[in-house]
Amino acid sequence: MAERQLDPSLDAGQAPYLAQQRASQSLVFDQLVKRYAMAYGDRPEQIRAGTWLAEHLGPGARVLDVGCGTGVPTARQLVNAGLQVVGIDISAAMVSAAAAAVPEAVIYNCDVLNLTETGFDGAVAFFSLLMLPRSGIAQALSVLYEAIKPGGYLLISMVEADLDDVPVKFLDTDVRVSGYQRDALCGVVEQAGFGIVDMRVVAYTPAVAQADPEIHLYAFARRPHGDRESE
Ligand SMILES: C[S@@+](CC[C@H](N)C(=O)[O-])C[C@H]1O[C@@H](n2cnc3c(N)ncnc32)[C@H](O)[C@@H]1O
């Protein structure tokens, strides 16, 4: 396993920039609740990933859904599998949608970089970390490492792309996104201290006429049980 590292580019001076950018990113999905669900509603690989997590953790496990969006499909699926789900999202509109769709879950408005809850058996971050600059993704992975118990799992999905905080049009809305090629994504996850368990790569075409086909990466990772010497 790679040595666990904090991104050296994260200095205190970056915090105001990140906070300001995240505030504007939170508004993006406030406008996109319905359109996102229509364009990206059918993601069989994400369902398979949720099934994998539920089977590996078992009923009663406590799971964090980072950037839970509308709560559908993943928070809904994990609750149906008997897991205790906590969902966080920076978009107030997404939080309202998820709370209505998955009332059994605890859903609240929170930026992953400000998360203080710990003790999770697992976490998922499906297509949410891509809205951070790469420096913020490294920071978020460190937060999630602390939030997940030793031996717990982290599942991340991203669109495969070599980008750092680049402005793009997403469903006709301006947004800034980051991405990695598959090997680089594994490297970033390992640098945060996780071991890679699996990487699944799937082609995906959103259900809107003007959207280009995408390559989706699903990284399955695990926080080691003990310190590196005892692994
Ligand atoms: C592309 S949507 C994916 C939603 C859901 N995970 C799914 O798979 O359908 C990304 C979500 O992540 C949220 N998000 C983006 N940056 C975030 C952050 N720093 N902390 C928490 N949520 C964030 C957005 O508001 C949005 O709801």
Topology:
Layout: H1 15-30, H2 33-40, H3 44-57, E1 62-66, H4 74-80, E2 84-89, H5 92-101, E3 106-109, E4 120-126, H6 134-147, E5 148-159, E6 163-170, E7 173-179, H7 182-191, E8 195-204, E9 214-222
Parallel strand pairs: 1-2, 1-4, 2-3, 4-5
Antiparallel strand pairs: 5-9, 6-7, 8-9
The structure holds S-adenosylmethionine (SAM).
S-adenosylmethionine is lined by residues 22, 25, 29, 66-69, 74, 88-91, 94, 111-113, 126-128, 131-132.
Q: Notable features of this structure?
A:
231 residues; alpha/beta; Rossmann fold; seven-stranded mixed sheet; two-stranded antiparallel ribbon; 34% helix; 29% strand; globular; binds S-adenosylmethionine; SAM-dependent_MTases_sf; Methyltransferase domain-containing protein
| Tally of contiguous helical segments | 7
How many distinct beta strands?
9
Helix percentage range: 25-40%
Task: Identify every distinct bound molecule in the structure, by name, code or SMILES.
Answer: S-adenosylmethionine
Order of strands side by side in the largest beta sheet?
3-2-1-4-5-9-8
Kindly report the name of the CATH homologous superfamily: Vaccinia Virus protein VP39
Spans of at least 5 consecutive residues with low confidence? 6-13
